[in-house]
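Lab manual, section 2.4: Encoding a predicted structure.

Procedure: take the sequence of the chain (444 residues), apply the prediction step described in section 2.3, and record the output as structure tokens. A sample record is shown.
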Amino acid sequence: MEHDVAIAGGGASAVLLALQLRRRWPDCRIAIAEPAARLGAGAAYSTRCDEHLLNVPAGGMSADPETPDDFVAYLRAQGFDAGVAARYVPRRRYHDYLAARLRALPGTAPHHARAEAVGYDAQDRALILDSGARLRARALVLATGNRARGLPIPVPAQAAGRAIGAWDHDAVAALPATADVAIVGTGLSMVDAALTLHARGHRGRIVALSRHALLPLPHAAPGEAAVDLDALLALPLRARLRALRGEAEALRRAGRPWQWLMQALRPHGVALWRSLGDGDRARFLRHAVRYWDVHRHRIAPEAAAVLDGMIARGDLVLARARLEAIACEDGRLRLDARAHDGRALCWRVDAALDATGIETRLARSADPLLAALRDAGLVRAGPCGLGLDVEADGAVRDAAGRVHDDLYAIGSLRIGTEWESVAIPELRVQAATIAARLAAAARG
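Recorded output:
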């Protein structure tokens, strides 16, 4: 075999895995298939904008679960002061950190194949690249990361250049300061886009629309709250949510922030998800997921303050509506939507930004490798159709339910099985577990 481990995708989870593989298997021959020039960037850390901050303090972002202060040590070496562990630093700093740790690996650097993985030859154990090349390896790890969900309605061809992905940070930053902008979605991607427009002195109208028009909420000062996990796990979904609302209200009456409750729940997200039956998981996705997300995936207080100021001044308007159509009209875009109360809404703008978030359903994935694996029966969807069906250690199940011994998944592909599978605290543990399994298999 040319390589011991091939990794499809080159974002943060791929770099975390490479670091853990070399720690446990020093002479492991690693190949990473990633078309982007920079490894470790992905959707989350590709930004070079200083206004895009980490969503957790630096002290919680170490790449290694066994060395919790590693990121802080890196930042201190870059000139940050002792208080940086509690700060929300620019996300670009985290990519720089991962790149530095990857460069520092002893031995031969992982092979970076500048191409996208589009298929897999299971018999030959070869990852097929869009360049025509093949990467043969004893094991394959799927680290394909996040892909944008895409706007929910067709975009006319003549709108090219005016319908922009919110993750295209350069295109967002290049919008004229006087442009009227609609942002479809009000989650974390919308926050990034709004912060970039604000940082560049945008003067045009900005409207952000989504079904609920809920923004991610801010972090509070650190603190602790008690949670009876066993009691929660014994409850069905509705009773569980009712109990959590009661706990949050009790904190409020005591003059303490509700964020402390979410922080106490943070390490138990996987257990809470796995303890739900299929019916309750489906109900959660239909009725509660957006409310959960805005409380769970919080943003830096300083980012929230900027958004609050934009809304107070009227620079950013939130609309609770569902997008129904996009058309070109007199050199601009016309967006037709339906408000939650049934009213017809219409905006004429110069640009529309797609901030609808990530696609998590296997059946709708635009990833060519995942489609090829699915069509070949080598993978199947996880619970509720989300991600892939995987074991607790990340080993992937095929269409018949058999567990592969040479195919693993890391990151958002495990969302259906684990739910909490997109943040660094989970990714670094997943990376360590997969690396340990593969190293043990290599030793026989």
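Check your result against the sample. The mean pLDDT is 96.
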